[in-house]
Amino acid sequence: MDLKRYTHADARDIRSLLLDIHDEAYANDPNPFHSRERFSYFVDLWSSRENWQCVSGWEEGSPVGYAYGSTLKPGGWWKGHQRPTSTRGSVFALSELMVVPQWRGTGRAKQMHDALLESVEADAVTLLVDSTHYKVQALYESWEYDKVGEAKPSDDSPLYAVMAKELKRG
After folding, report:
1. Among 31, 48, 146, 170, fewest CB within 10 Å belongs to which?
2. What does the record list as coiled-coil region(s) (predicted)?
3. Residue 130 is inside which H or E element, if any?
């Protein structure tokens, strides 16, 4: 798989790519929370951060998916959940890890995840998983994430499992 890296400076150029992959990933999901319109708000919010990073994966010139996020402000954490005392230092929030349906279950998600995190300068990484998606949560647990709580960041959002792991360097 070919990997491409992007920063905040590239956000405008890849916005449509991110939205199109989202649309393909959620094509059969009628929940308005997963609409393109709603997701475009989150793409713009996250990619407007100066420390935003993104990695996309490509096979034979077609997109496989992407992973993106940014380092939280000191003391920052997910809305609706207190930062665990066990999570010290700087924290990178993995906001999205999305794979188009034909590439799910092939290890591409892990490749993009790892490629994104290898350039992250943080002590820990955190993410949210829809608490009804047990297989996805188990996948992250196999990648050494621990569930540290639950959060419901907005009235129309699902209840999320808050997951975190320490980043080991060197």
Report:
1. 170
2. none
3. strand 124-130
Question: Residue written as tokens 């994104």?
Answer: 116
**Cβ contacts of 71 within 8 Å, gap of 6 or more:** 51, 90, 91, 92, 93, 120, 121, 122
* pTM for this model (two decimals): 0.92
What is the C-alpha separation between 52 and 168, in angstroms, rounded? 21
The fraction of the chain above a pLDDT of 70, given in percent, is 95
- How far is 167 from 77, CA to CA, in rounded Å? 17
Mean pLDDT for the stretch of residues 27-34: 87
pLDDT at 29 over 80: yes
Confidence of residue 170 (pLDDT cuts 50, 70, 90): low
Contact in structure between 44 and 91 (CB atoms under 8 Å): no
Other beta carbons less than 10 A from residue 50's beta carbon: 9
Phi then psi for residue 35, to 5 deg, are -70, 160
Spatial distance between the Cα atoms of 16 and 63, rounded to a whole number of angstroms? 12
| Nearest Cα to Cα of residue 111 among 19, 4, 20 | 4
SS3 track for 14-83: HHHHHHHHHHHHCCCCCCHHHCHHHHHHHHHHHHCCCCCEEEEEEECCEEEEEEEEEECCCCCCCCCCCC
The alpha carbon of residue 137 and the mean position of all alpha carbons in its chain are separated, in whole angstroms, by 13
